[in-house]
Write a structure and sequence with these properties.
By secondary structure, the protein is α+β, with helices and mostly antiparallel strands. It folds into 2 domains: 2-169, no CATH class; 180-212 and 256-268 and 286-420, no CATH class. It has helices at residues 21-33, 62-81, 106-120, 125-144, 159-170, 180-194, 196-208, 233-241, 277-290, 318-335, 352-366, 379-388, 400-420, and strands at 2-6, 9-13, 35-44, 47-59, 85-89, 92-96, 223-225, 228-230, 250-255, 271-276, 303-306, 310-313. Helix 7 packs across helix 10 and helix 7 packs across helix 11 (352-366). The longest helix has 21 residues, at 400-420. The chain is globular, with a radius of gyration of 24 Å.
Length: 421
């Protein structure tokens, strides 16, 4: 089971390549309207009617909807893997799987949430609730489209598993930093096992601090923002040819706010990225060599290519997906006891830790190796906040997010010394 993204729709495919129509329709409808359907109890005099509910719409950001798609995919994968598994509910024995997942009763969905996600996969309470929201939106859509008769599902975290779900959150690593050694290993594995594009994607997190969703903001042509015009990557490629890494170690690239993190129904904030000479050189090599050139006219650097959908733009989760598969491959190589033995362990980290590591290195260098002396009103602190795209309030104090880099800077040296030992 997988999905492929094309324009504003995720196409869900079973293992044998058959398009799954219902989830694909749900994806298209959600992205077309930026709305999802939810259930609300009907209020009556003296309280709420416990069994009568109505469906209402709720506006959501593009980012939120994109985050729902891999959660829906996870459920469909589970349904596909338990095909022909028999449940006995209320004395009635029946078979459920991918082919009739849309008819799954609440009991089966609660087994998925509690037994599979929480107990087996060790997801957190917050993530389990996000899966519940996704499933409720999906089944409400099926009902409103008259694809099923009644889509309401009574989904919840079982009381006896609530503490376990919270402990799953607590078991997440507190280390928000990857050493240069393990980052270099990730880049090398990405290049040798998966190709130049995936190496560049990881380096964009670890060397310039972009978020996964911001990988879609590397536009090729010059573009306008307000009354100003900024260089796209193709212009920077020309600049690259006219200089060297000594004269110009970094190139300024303007990341437009439409591609950066934003609150629902708001635009993000534009910011400057300092692209290292060697990274821009890799981008140029990818653009001129490995980047697909057939089947799509795209203004963006990074593209996907598949047998089913051809060439498409990458999704907001591409960085997350690349990090996951590369980290898994790195751990597999390490387990053989030959390469990368002294590098830091990668456990439950995601692509975002590359960005966090970049910010930590930046903070460390600005503090001259003494992060404790930095306060939230200092110019060093403000510089890190601006480079990372963190919001700064009216008192010119960087937000709480930036403060995390102080804590990470304090463990950075210990982690790097441990790799050398």
């Amino acid at each position: 089971m997988e999905y492929l993204k094309r324009e504003n729709v995720y196409i869900f495919l079973s293992n044998d390549g058959v398009i799954q129509v219902l989830p694909s329709f749900f994806s298209q409808a959600s992205f077309n309207t930026y709305q999802i359907f939810t259930y609300a109890r009907i209020k009556i005099t003296g309280g709420y009617e416990p069994y009568k509910r109505k469906i209402k719409t709720r506006d959501e950001s593009r980012r939120t909807i994109e985050e729902m798609m891999p959660r829906l995919l996870r459920f469909l994968k589970w349904a596909e893997n338990v095909a022909d598994y028999h449940w006995e509910i209320g004395g009635v024995r029946d078979t459920y799987g991918l082919h009739n997942h849309h008819l799954s009763p609440s009991e089966i969905l609660n087994d998925y949430i509690n037994d599979y996600l929480i107990s087996e996969q060790k997801v957190s309470e917050a993530e389990a609730k996000a899966h519940i929201t996704t499933l409720n939106a999906y089944f409400a859509y099926l009902e409103i489209g008259e694809l099923i008769e009644d889509g309401f599902k009574d989904l919840y975290i079982r009381p006896e598993l609530l503490e376990e779900a919270r402990n799953n959150t607590n078991k997440k690593t507190g280390v928000k930093y990857l050493t240069n050694g393990v980052r270099d290993a990730l880049y090398e594995v990405a290049l040798t096992e998966f190709g130049l594009r995936d190496e560049i994607i990881l380096r964009c997190g670890g060397e310039i601090g972009v978020r996964s969703c911001e990988l879609r903001g590397f536009v090729l042509d010059d573009f306008a923002e307000g009354k100003s015009t900024f260089k796209g990557l193709k212009s920077l490629f020309d600049d690259l040819e006219a200089t060297d890494d000594v004269e110009t170690p970094y190139f300024k690239f303007r990341l437009h706010g439409r591609y950066s993190k934003a609150k629902p129904n708001e635009g993000g904030e534009s910011r400057w990225l300092d692209i290292p000479y060697n990274l821009l050189e890799r981008m140029k090599d990818y653009y001129e060599g490995e980047r697909p050139s057939q089947g799509i006219e795209s203004k963006f650097l990074f593209l996907n290519e598949s047998n089913n959908l051809g060439v498409t733009n990458i999704s907001a989760r591409k960085g997350t997906d690349v990090f996951r598969v590369v980290a898994k491959k790195l751990n597999k190589i390490k387990s053989k006891g030959i390469l990368y033995q002294n590098t830091q362990e990668i456990t439950d980290q995601t692509f975002h830790i590359l960005r966090h590591s970049f910010g930590t290195d930046l903070f460390w260098s600005l503090s001259d190796g003494n992060p404790e002396r930095i306060v939230s009103t200092s110019k060093e602190f403000m510089h890190v906040a601006e480079r990372m795209g963190h919001r700064i309030n009216n008192m010119r104090k960087a937000g709480k997010t930036t403060i995390k880099y102080i804590r990470s800077a304090q463990v950075k040296q210990a982690l790097e010394l441990a790799e050398v030992a």
